[in-house]
Structure formats: C-alpha cells, structure tokens
Amino acid sequence: MAGHSHFSPANVEEHFEFTSEGKKRVIYAFIAGVVALVLGIYLLSKGEAGGHEVANAGHEAVKAGHEAASEHLSGGAVSHQPAAEEHYDWTNRIWANVWLNAVFFTGIAIIGMFFVSLQYLTKSGWSSVMKRVPEAFPKFLYITLPILLLVFFFKGDAIFHWMHHGVTEVGNENYDKIIAGKSGYLNKTFFLVRLVGFFALWIGLWTVLRKKSLEEDLIGGTDLFTQLVRISTAFIVVFGASSSMFAWDWVMSIDTHWFSTMFGWYMFSSWHVTGLAVITLTILLLKDKGYMAYVNENHLHDLGKLMFAFSIFWTYVWFEQFLLIYYANMPEEIIYFLERWEGHNKIYKTSEILMVFLNFFFPFLVLMTRDAKRTRIFLKIAAFFIIVGHYIDFYQMIMPGVLGGHAGYGLVEFGMVTVFASAFIYIVSDELTKASLIAKNHPFLPEAVHHDI
Amino acid sequence: MSHVVSPIREKLVTGGKSYSDVTHDICKQVEGEPTKEWKWAFGISSIVFIYGAYCLFYTWWQGIGVWGLNKTVGWAWDITNFVWWVGIGHAGTLISAVLLLFRQKWRTSINRSAEAMTIFAVLCAASFILAHMGRPWLAHWALPLPNAFGSLWVNFNSPLVWDVFAISTYLSVSLLFWYMGLVPDLASIRDRATTKGRKFWYGLFSLGWTGSSKTWARYEYMSLILAGISTPLVLSVHTIVSMDFATSVIPGWHTTIFPPYFVAGAIFSGFAMVQTLLLITRVVFKLEDYITIEHIEMMNIVITVTGSVVGIAYLTEFFIAWYSGVEYESYAFINRATGPYWWAYWMMMTCNVISPQLFWSKAIRTNLMVSFFLSIVVNVGMWFERFVIIVTSLHRDYLPSSWAMFSPTMYDIGDYIFSFGLFFTLFFLFAKYLPVVNMAEVKSVMKGVSSNFPEKKKATKKTEE
C-alpha cells in the first residue's frame, strides 16, 4: 500500500493565511453584532425589548404564568421563587446573555482540547490529519475566563439565586433554608477557586500540549508523541473529574433549589456535540478555501458519524433525565421541567420543542445515510443546526432561572451571539496561522492519509 | 479499511503466523479429543450446575418463601444477581458492535468469546427473572399477548416490562450477531472435517457458506448493520435495568445519573469477566500469539476508564444527596457508608474504584497474574455495588420500627450457584465445540498488525519494488 503513495511529511505542510479580507469580514460581523447589541440594549432600556414574547407579555401575564406552574406543585413543598420576580432589573437580560455565551463558547473551546486529548489517549490514527483545527480552539479560553470572572464579580447576584443578598443569613427576610444548607459548596470563595482552578488546569495543560505539538513539527520522532499521550491523559482525568462540578457551578446552581445527578454529563454531552459540529464546520470552511486537501470524504464521514452518534447520546442523556424526573413526579424536581414547559406564560415551550427537534430529529434524519455524511453541504447544514440547537439548549438551561418571564429572542440575543461567534472565529483563525494545518510529523499521519472507509 | 499501520503500534498477532497457522491453531481444539483439563473443568461445572438446579427446583417447588426476604427487604439477592449477570452480559456486544464501529482491530481475537460469554450471562440473568416469578410456567404473561382473560395486559408503565422487551431484544440480537460471525469459521471446520458427523453438523450450521467475494461482501454489510442495531441496545439494556430502581421514589434509587452510570458499570464488569475467561483460555488453548499482552492491556485500560466513570458517579450521587438538602436522600447515603452495611459499601468502593487505579502502572496492567486477580476483584465489587444499591436502600425505610437486615438462606446462595453452574457449563461446551477466536476476522486484519506478516508475500513484494 505504502508503495503507491506520494505522501511524505515534506509536502503536507501548509499554512493558513488569515487574509486582511478575511479579517475585515470578521471585524464587520463583530461590529454588526455590537450595533445590534447596543440597539437591543437601548430598546430594552425603553422597556420595549427585542423579543416579541416579552413585548407582549406584561408583568401580569408573567405572574399568571408562574401561578400556572405552581398549581401543579404540592403546597409549600417548593419555595422556588425565581430570581426574576423580586430582583428583576432590565439589565439582567444583558448579563444573562453574556453568561450564556461565555459558558457556551468556553465549552466549544475546551472540547477542542478534549477532542485532541481523546484522540491521543485512544491512539486514533484517522484524526491526526485534522488535529490542528481543534487544537486551536482552547485559545478562546483566554477570552471567556475574564468575561466569566467579571460577570461573576459584578453581576453574580443577577445570575445566581444563591448570591442574592441575605439568602443564607438566618433572620434575614430573604433567608432560604435550602440555599443556606448548600452554602458549604455554593459560596463566593469556593466557587471562584473552582472556576479559576479549572481554567488554570485547562489552559496550563493546553499550553503544554500545544507547545509539544508544535515542537513535533520541527523535531519529529516518537518521544514527543509519548509525552503528548501523557498530557492528554492528564487532561482527560482533570476534565473527567471537573466535568460535573463546572456544570453544577456555572449552570445548575442558577436554579439553586433544583438538583439532578445527571446534570454534569448532560451539559457535557451538549458541549461535546457542539464542539464536534464546530470542528466539522471549521474544517469544511478551510477546505472551501482550498486548505486541508488531505482531509477527504473518509475523514468527513467519520466526523459526520461522530456528530450523528453524539447527537443521539445527547438525546439519550436529556431524555433519561427528563423521563426519570417526569416519572417520579417529585415536586422539588419536576418544577424544572414544568417551568420550561408551561411556566412564565409558556414563553419557553417553543424553544423546548425546537431544541429537541434540532438536537435530535434533525441530525438523526439528515446524517442517517452514508452519502449525507460524505457530502459537504449536508454536513454543513447539520453542523450549523446542531450548533444553533445547542445554543437553544443552553438558553433553556440558563434563561428561566435568571430571567423568568422576561426572556426572549431579540436583538440583544442575536447581537451577543454574533459578538461572541465573530470573536471566536477571529481568535481561532489567528491561532491557526501559528502552525502548519497538518501536523506533519505525527506518527499516525500515514494512517490518516491512507484512511479509507 | 486501509492496511497502512503506523510502525509505533503494537502487533496484535505475534509469532509470525501465516493464514494457515491461524486456522490450524484455532481449529485444533475443536477437532482434537477433549483434553483432560477440559474434562475436569466441565465435570466440576456440571456438578455445580446439578446442585444449583436442585436448589432452583426446590425454590420453584416450595415458592420464593425459601429465600431470606422479609417485609422490609423485599428484593435482595434475586435482583442483585440478575443485575450482576445482565451487567456482565454487556461486554460482548460492546466489543463486537461498538469496537467494530470504532475500527478497533484488537477486538477480532476476543469478540467471539466475549459474545458467547454475553449470551450465557444473559441466560443466567434470565434464570433469575424466572426464579422471581414463583410460577415460571406463567412466564409468558410478561409478554403483551392477546388472551382470553378479558382486558388483561401487562402494565406498559412498568420498567419491569420494559426490561422484558429490552433483554429479549438484546439476547436475540446478540445471538444473531454471534452466530453470523461464526458462519465462516464453521465453514472452515466443515471443509477440514475428517469425520462424517463433523462434516454434517458443522456443514448444517454453516448455512452453505461458499466463501465467494459476494458472500464476504454481504457478511461485511451484515456486520455493520448489526453493529448499528446493537450499539443502542448496549446502552438501552442497562439503562432500562437502572430504571427498575430509578423510576421509583425510594431514596438511594431515584437519581437521574443511574442510566449512564449503570451502563458504565456494566461495561466495567463485562470487561472484567472477559478478562477472567480469556486469561485462562489463552493459556489452556495456547493462544498467546492471538490474545497478546497488548489485548490484555487494552482491556485493562477499558476497565480503568469505566471504573473511574463509575467512581465519579458514586461521588456525584453522594454529593448531590447532600446538596439536595433532602433529609431522606442524605440519610440513605450516610447509612450506606457508615450504617450496618458499611462493609458492603467499602467493599464496593475498594474493588470498583480503588483497585482499577492500580492499572495506571504499565507493569501492573501487563502482568497476567495481577490482571487475573483484579478482574475477579472487579466482579466481586460489582456484585457488592448492586447489593449496596438494593439492600441498603431498602433495609432502613421511612418507618424505623420496620428496619431490618437481610440474611440469605441456602436457597439464595444455591440459586446463585446455579447461575455459575449454567454459565461455566455453557462456556466449556462453547470452548470445546466452537472456535474461540474468530479466525476469519483475525485474518482480515493481520496485514499490518501481525509481526512478520506474511513472510512469503513480504519477500516477493521486496523483489517487486
């Protein structure tokens, strides 16, 4: 087999050029996002809000929605008072959006690292030809870390119920016994230690991995490969151990009363499939520009399979969590789904249905056939809608707890996601220019180049 | 699949085997007389089986009152053993289906025995369902069959009924997968047969296999389709088993992480059982060149990963029990770890979470004796896991006046022994009469993964170049 190949490390090296034209486009997109955001904020301050839902739903209607939700609950078993009611301030919607996007894009960035590490750990050959793409993603952690920290410091109480003034203070009118019981874990210091600690470990391990990976291009040999496997293993251990905790911290603790043991893996599965979709989309866009010729339909087929499989995995995790809570129907648990289904004047119901459609039925049907997974346009469509679907998934996780009946899809949402997405594209494109798009001395590269399924 | 293999990968077939060596090495124990070791092993397992069968018969004759159940602990060894065996039955399909989809070439020399083991383990699990019923002759009532009793249907809302569907589907698909994989190998034995009887029987079961390229193409399509069907089944079976508990509102049972965590635990215990069996098989049948240290190491890595996943799930449950602020939930977990069944809990923690961490050391995970010992430790731990979940959650319920302990009777133990007898009797029959390694599939990946493969061709290739 090796006989008829013209492959040699020397002719696979290629460098991505982030052209000034490309930069301009990303910057324009960023500016458009900022404009939309500013306009959205202006409208919000005028009480008009970008979203139709909120515009139509007055305070009364929201209240009614709440009552509809609590009708199903047994008396005072659940003293769940969403933050929105007492502490609502129109600016909360801005902070909720910042938090949502920061968490969502942190996920995409770290899944890049997770993907590369998993390939090293499992000694996968086929993916070695494309590993430089996900390897560039974690650079964006440098952007999301300060954003998360700033929001937490200045507006944490707008996001997290447990940060409200006096909730853990006995005798205070806001005192909440259940939240006070959790304060051993949910307190500012410990939360920050975890947040900074996870980021420090992730960024640290990524920096080492990236450095060794680039060194491999110059030196070659298998020593660096062995070291890369070790770093990857360390990362998988760190990520595995932290995966539930950051999900509890950054998302589950928004609905402070509520709890679910599955939540960590649920959020991970959402991040994971989004990350896979972003990796696929990036590779396809690079291929459109004429780069990465060695990535052929066989590799794309595998990426398609991964998106297909992990969309089903997400559905599995989401559905099991839902089913067990629905079946047992315990007030302290079921509130979560009731709130999203019929609470707040049903403003979340459409998103809930749309999310399940986009995250399960759509990729399941579109990526079912072999041909679809080998055809770029199908992959692009599937990847795009998976990303949109999981954005909505995170919207559903975060917004009801933070904004209650005041959420909606408006200029603020579209502006914010455009700002984050264009920043992500800029940072990742810039990082991609720093190394050959193909890791030419990767010991599994010959396998990847001859990959044929 | 491309045969370009990076030189840094370990060889999966050692000893410079040629294709005919593979056929010979694997067929010889099918074709030869049963060895003395085999006769002893089979004899012992038959005796165990007969003793167990007596206990099971007595259970059926007298009713399940002969078990040690009481009004508080109404479910104990019976369901523990069932879940334990179903869990073990996960590795076969994982190896044959999921590892096929992930193109793991090392699966080819272990999939046959893993699948056989799966089928036998599922049968053992099924025997506990039948034992549970008390009136096994009415077992068909678990199926939604039209009947003459008015509108008498199974309760479709019950996870126990979902279990019946899930496990019977799993058993049939696994059986089909295993048998289809056997067909080319049965044909090899048929073609080599020296006796009339062997030619007839292996010929009958090889379904007229011709070995033409069209047949092979169909074989490959079929493998992929069955792998696609089996993959969700691997997840669904233990998911539904976990729902037997998680859909309830018993503290310690009702927790959303159960489905994936049970699946991880099942793969964990299944791999451990495959490890136990293969470490013996490779020595007894002299298959060290096919089931290499690399294979054993891979399985140990899977055991470490799944063991750690299970460990994270244990800690998550414990943490959330506290975090939830639900008094009953917190108590259930504190009682598990420090109550009268603390020894079962710590047995579980040590065997399942701590012991697999030893495999982080390459010296340990490539050591045959340690691997063998730990593979048994893992399954001891997994038995205790189910016991802990089931019995410790039940034995102290909401009414302290009805708190009780569970002690097994000799029929609890005897029925468990029955399942071992059944399992090993079937496994020894399999090992003697069927090829324990999938010859055809090992040959299909040998190019590239075999040391010195194939010597003659390599020589000619060199001259061509």
UniProtKB/TrEMBL annotation, chain A:
UniProtKB keywords: Membrane, Transmembrane, Transmembrane helix
Highest taxon, organism lineage: Bacteria
UniProt key word Metal-binding: no
The keyword Phosphoprotein belongs to this UniProt entry's keyword annotation: no
Transmembrane segments: 26-44, 98-120, 140-163, 191-209, 229-251, 263-286, 306-327, 347-365, 377-395, 407-428
Name under which the protein is recorded: Quinol:cytochrome C oxidoreductase
Species the sequence originates in: Aquirufa aurantiipilula
Taxon lineage: Bacteria, Pseudomonadati, Bacteroidota, Cytophagia, Cytophagales
Automatic annotation (TrEMBL), chain B:
Membrane topology according to the record: Multi-pass membrane protein
Keywords carried by this UniProt record: Cell membrane, Membrane, Transmembrane, Transmembrane helix
Keyword Repeat in record: no
Localization annotation: Cell membrane
InterPro entries: NrfD-like (IPR005614)
Domain of life: Bacteria
Protein name listed in UniProt: Polysulfide reductase NrfD
Organism: Aquirufa aurantiipilula
